[in-house]
Specification:
single chain; mainly alpha; two-stranded antiparallel sheet; two-stranded antiparallel ribbon; globular
């Protein structure tokens, strides 16, 4: 993708946003995402169309319950980044336990959640992937985090100032504005 952007003389900042939007549109609109995505599998054509490809690439769908848990976690992470309180870290801990295949073997603790999210220099995709690894989260959630990290890596190569966190936040706001009544208990408006 980076070489293609150079060859075609494309706007690299705009392309970085397009790459992340393509992945997040799949998640928030189609409830699906490309699993097994690697940085080398993100391609661009001369008319600036983004393609995801790869030998192990597959399209994975989230069932409603899993999708709700993931949205809930992404929102809780955003709230904890804005308001780092024990209560917000505890909510993340509870959600991660629900997402784990074997909750009893989860290595995640409130202190670890807090320390991971306190590392502001750590990009958001790395924070999510680290949380999932520590909590023993596997399957589609872990696959999504890996794909998110691949997108973040390429986007930052295109634009060193790129912040996935800002794109993800806008997607969350748009999603919850459409369904405010279902999520009032989560105080989603705090992220505005």
């Amino acid at each position: 993708l980076v070489e293609g952007a150079k060859s075609y003389g494309l706007n690299r900042k705009a392309l970085a946003r397009s790459v992340s939007n393509k992945l997040l549109v799949g998640l928030f609109q189609d409830s699906a995402f490309p699993a097994g995505l690697k940085s080398s599998g993100i391609l661009v054509t001369e008319n600036a169309k983004i393609h995801f490809s790869g030998k192990d690439l597959s399209r994975m769908h989230f069932p409603q319950k899993s999708r709700k848990l993931l949205y809930q976690l992404l929102l809780q992470i955003e709230l904890a980044r804005r308001h780092p309180s024990s209560q917000n870290f505890q909510k993340i801990n509870v959600t991660l336990t629900q997402m784990s295949d074997e909750p009893t073997k989860s290595e995640i603790t409130l202190t670890k959640v807090k320390s991971i999210l306190s590392l502001k220099r750590l990009p958001v995709a790395d924070q999510i992937l680290t949380l999932f690894r520590r909590a023993g989260v596997r399957g589609k959630f872990r696959d999504f985090a890996q794909s998110l990290k691949a997108v973040q890596t390429v986007a930052k190569q295109l634009d060193p100032e790129f912040r996935l966190h800002s794109i993800l936040k806008r997607r969350l706001i748009t999603h919850f504005l459409k369904k405010p009544l279902r999520y009032t208990s989560m105080k989603w408006r705090e992220i505005l």
